[in-house]
Amino acid sequence: MRVLTRRLARDNWRFSTPVFEIDEAGVGRAVYVAQGPERAYSLVAFAHDLPPEKRSDRVIADAWDATFTLFDGIPSEADLDRLSCNVPLQEAGRISETELSLSRANRSVRLWTHVVEALADGRQPDLEQIQKVGYLMRTTAVYGSGKFGAADRENTANRPETEGPFQAEMLSVFLTRAFVRDLVEHMARANGGSKAVKMAPDIARRLGIGNSTGLGMAPFLINHPVLLNNWIMAREEAIARVRSVQTATQEEISVFRSVFDRSQVSIGQWHSEHPIQERKLSALKADLGVIADFLRHDDLTGRRPWNRLVEWSETVLSEEGQELLLSLILEPYSDLVDGLSGCTADSSPHLYEIDGAMPLADVRQAIRDSFGWVLDLDWGAREACARVWYVSEEKLEPRLGERFDEPVAEYEQPLAPARDAAAAYSAMADWDTAATTAEFLLRHPEHRHTIRRAQISRKAPYSEIRDNTIGASVLPIDMLRAKLSFFGATHFDPRSDRWVRICMYSGAPYPEDLSPENADFWVYPEVPE
Amino acid sequence: MNLSLNEVEGLAKRAARGAGHHWGPAEDAAKATRWLCLQGFDGAAALSAVLRQEFALRFDAHTPRDLGAPWRAHGQMCPLGAGMLLSDCSDHLGRGPIVLYDVAVPLLLLPFAGNAARRLQTNVTVVCDELSATTDGEVVDAPDLWPESATKVIVRIGGTPGKLRAKQTRALPAPAALAFLNTLAQRTYAPATEESRRLGAGAGLSDND
User: Fold this and answer.
1) Best of A442, A449, A478, A479 to disrupt the B interface by mutation (most B CBs within 10 Å)?
2) pLDDT single digits (tens) A83-116
3) What SS3 state is found at A501?
4) Which of A221, B56, B71, B168 fits as disulfide partner to B64, beta carbons 3.0 to 4.6 Å?
5) Is the pTM of this model over 0.80?
6) Which of A353, A357, A392 sits opposite B200 (nearest CB)?
7) Contacts of A62 in chain B (CB under 8 A)
8) pLDDT digit string (tens) for A41-75?
9) Distance CA A463, CA B200 (A)
10) Contact flag A392-B203 (C-beta cutoff 8 Å)
11) What residues does each domain of chain A span?
């Protein structure tokens, strides 16, 4: 998200709303245009009147409060008419090569009603309620990359603004947030007439867009090993650069202290009812006190201060606290780390081609490097392979089933790299280590997907998740969180072990207020005076 | 109906799996189908013609018996099995042409010849009875119409592409091929049950809040 807002501000993008045809019941359409130096993109939004019993964030829903597409350019009236017949249907409709994303959002019913009533009545909404929910609408799926007829990523991957992964989707959510604010004010006017007021800017700024996400993101990470590698590698490289900084200037130290103070505000507003996340949150909140205490006694001068801080954190903080600190030390060093966002796309499609000349000895070594820890695991044990990833017939939704309790094993997706690596490794044991990959695969096509991954891992060392993705104790929400954190999501709130809510763009300026001064650090709320 | 290349690739992968191929070969089938569509062929129809022959049921009988020249299978050669081997053994082309006998749907060899060309950083030519195609992996000079099978195919380094095919950003599969691939893909989906709806995706709390 911050990669996007920095670019929009730096390149002086302009925003307009040429269409806002929404009636008093809140039904209609709107177009939000983002005009960049070379091209324009338009969020086309449809607002609906959704009966409460139909409001579901699940992918099996078939109606929403609002539906959206990001149009490549500025849509004509005919485009809008075509889209109005398809976008509201989401998966059941068809979009085309001029569309880059397809998404939908549902209201947070309690907050929506409260805000509309307050504004209609000429009052500002209650801050506590705003803070508690954090958003007026939450998106569910945001589809891109050729889904449901949309343009392939290759169509836009060479444009500077969409070269980075998910930038089109992030733009669609950024504009969605502006639409939602405008819609709630419109509804307040419709209800309150001349008495109605607009939302105060500082309240509006606190509102983000929620997102409710299910299992689909977990298979995505496994199916895109190079992308995963590039994300992790960019972060590791950024951390390594900052830990190598010899001495910190007073200004750098003060930026760090400021983002630490502000992150405490953000974490203070972070709630979850999920027992695992509650435990992590309370450990993190305790860590904040420990860090604050350390910073009272240490002025961060001296040699390699950030490295010293990180090494200290490893001895006293929970994993949550350590990871937070690693993110915060990057903040004073835009010049060292921001450029790494340009390395996060997967621009190596040919890495997926198998090198048949590679000796099996090298393939076995690659498997040992990524999966050495699973080779001796008893894969026949129930707890090692208790789960099955499969795709349901209904809406083609990825699901996680119980191998020994449900008849789903025959539909298993190839989402257990650890188990499959152990099987391929064992099959290669009887082969001459000088034999080639091509010879082996001619006899063992069943191991082809695993050999491909092993060869990729030689060039992409962070491509494999070091965990058993079908074990009895697997927590898919951990995979979801990893992906969402790279988007810049906050307030991770699991609803179960495989379903989460998060917040996006909370604190960000709205399009019309975006400037180089406020485009970057908005993710950290201001400390109340 | 036109499809994005991503859609055609996803469909091809599921269809190849539904036809009984392992996931790895299904991934290669999908990339090959996408490449053909990118080059303006009906890749879905080519894959569909291969999958109709059910080579996956006895895959080893339809792939080269060994790596020695020429390549023969016990039965008719599956272009997917032969193609993967061609891509894997691209270095063998440096020692001379690879000759394949009795190949089904030889058009499906082209993407794999393209992989070999890219890996060797040269042009590769596929001669199929009277037809020939030359590619460097990125672009291809090839005729539109290809036979259902070929008695002999020669793959060799070299050739100069003349008229390059225009690249496409969408796939326009023949309706019958699209329907057949969808039928096969359907076999990879588990029938939904109320329990899987409830447990499998892990919802439970109300969203109407």
Assistant:
1) A442
2) 999 999 999 999 999 999 999 999 999 999 999 9
3) strand
4) B71
5) yes
6) A392
7) none
8) 999 999 999 988 888 887 778 899 999 999 999 99
9) 26
10) no
11) 2-214, 246-332, 349-459
